[in-house]
Recover the amino acids of this structure.
């Protein structure tokens, strides 16, 4: 059944602290509403006790009272929600689906939709229509790629953090593409306030040869349940009748591709794959159900190319306090690994810090250990910027001999930035430290065990 927007927003709040009375009051109200809608209680336990992968626990439960309250909710409310729909939230803020026209900018429309909703739900409550046209310019300008090419998710995400995005009034979307079109100074200033604050969460990096795994589909549902729509590129039906994509056609009847924003889901054993994903299209509000459609889990599993969601942070939260260029760091030790400096000009060098990386030609089990010096002791959020590619493997990372961050799969169907490899928050003393990268197998689709490291960042936690 569907979770009411009120309780979902309450439990999602980043600073939501509750005691027994508060939970009892919310729970009693929700159960009463639920019984009127369905004999089955709303199921919320996982939203309270399970953080998103790559997302810090957001729910502050004070002391034993909070723990008892959480246990009470868990006991009463069971497993994950069977239905989540963020469409009404877009509608509440007046964020109706827009029309991309004849231009192939669906990826930018999907990312812009994510940004608009994140900002509207933020503490600032900024509800503004933002400029896909600006984001197209930002994607190419920040990535050093040709402006007459269609931008993809990772270029758009990079441009968003470098330049931000301005309001649509300052740079309206045009009917035709013009590679020479540039934003005004006013647009650049307006956009800057929305830059350097977006954490990019990759569920699946681009690969046209594989669809979404069961785990990746579960991550899309988990993100939706936490209030984050997911941008997804897919191989698309060559002929689409209506707004429901349920059955899975054979490969010759689809093409690469089209991007949408998944805005929720509904479990339904009668649908192919066991349910449907709700999606927001970029064909305008007259298409489908007021601009929205539905897609079966089976179709997404067969033809999903890539998927990503965004989380809005505080201003400048993605700007590092200290950056170490991997190719310039001393190699303290290595085994079965040949390391070289590599210029990334063939893949959009603007997406790599200083346009270069440290490429490591490695075998399974190979390692390299890099040294870095911390000048000011403190507690830092530590991340690695790396590269993903068709012949890259999986890696483990250790800081000063302690494994952190789990396993990172650096496979992608094309050469691209990996996005942030988050290593958590660490107290680092002033002085020498080291990171060790170890190859730990590879994705079944990858043709090798190589890996590439761009930079190591220390940020405010």
């Amino acid at each position: 059944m569907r979770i009411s927007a009120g309780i979902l927003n309450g439990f999602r709040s980043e600073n939501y602290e509750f005691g027994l009375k508060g939970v009892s009051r919310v729970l009693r109200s929700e159960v009463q509403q639920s019984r009127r809608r369905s004999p089955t209680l709303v199921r919320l336990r996982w939203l309270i006790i399970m953080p998103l992968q790559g997302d810090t626990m957001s729910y502050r439960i004070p002391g034993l009272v909070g723990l008892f309250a959480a246990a009470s909710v868990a006991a009463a409310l069971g497993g994950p929600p069977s239905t989540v729909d963020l469409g009404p939230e877009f509608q509440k803020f007046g964020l109706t689906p827009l029309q991309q026209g004849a231009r192939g900018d669906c990826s930018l429309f999907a990312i812009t939709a994510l940004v608009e909703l994140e900002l509207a739900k933020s503490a600032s409550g900024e509800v503004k229509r933002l400029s896909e046209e600006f984001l197209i310019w930002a994607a190419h300008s920040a990535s050093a790629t040709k402006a007459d090419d269609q931008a993809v998710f990772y270029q758009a995400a990079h441009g968003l953090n470098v330049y931000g995005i301005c309001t649509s009034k300052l740079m309206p979307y045009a009917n035709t593409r013009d590679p020479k079109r540039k934003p005004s100074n006013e647009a650049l200033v307006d956009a800057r306030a929305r830059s350097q604050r977006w954490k990019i969460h990759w569920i699946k990096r681009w690969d046209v040869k594989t669809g979404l795994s069961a785990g990746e589909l579960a991550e899309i549902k988990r993100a939706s349940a936490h209030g984050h729509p997911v941008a997804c590129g897919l191989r698309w039906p060559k002929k689409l009748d209506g707004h429901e994509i349920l059955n899975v056609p054979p490969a010759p009847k689809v093409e690469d591709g089209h991007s949408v924003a998944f805005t929720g889901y509904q479990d339904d054993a009668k649908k192919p794959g066991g349910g449907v994903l709700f999606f927001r299209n970029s064909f305008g509000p007259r298409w489908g159900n007021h601009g929205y459609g539905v897609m079966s889990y089976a179709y997404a599993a067969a033809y999903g190319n890539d998927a990503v969601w965004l989380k809005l942070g505080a201003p400048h939260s993605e700007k590092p306090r200290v950056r170490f260029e991997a190719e310039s760091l001393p190699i303290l030790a290595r085994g079965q690994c040949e390391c070289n400096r590599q210029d990334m000009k063939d893949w959009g060098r603007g997406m790599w810090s200083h346009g270069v990386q440290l490429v490591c030609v490695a075998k399974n089990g190979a390692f390299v250990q890099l040294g870095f010096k911390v000048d000011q002791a403190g507690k830092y959020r530590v991340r690695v910027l790396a590269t993903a590619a068709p012949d890259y493997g999986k890696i483990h990372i250790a800081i000063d001999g302690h494994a952190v961050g789990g396993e990172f799969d650096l496979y992608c169907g094309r050469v691209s930035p990996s996005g942030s490899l988050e290593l958590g928050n660490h107290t680092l003393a002033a002085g020498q430290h080291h990171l060790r990268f170890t190859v730990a197998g590879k994705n079944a689709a990858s043709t090798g065990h190589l890996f590439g490291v761009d930079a190591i960042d220390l940020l405010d936690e």
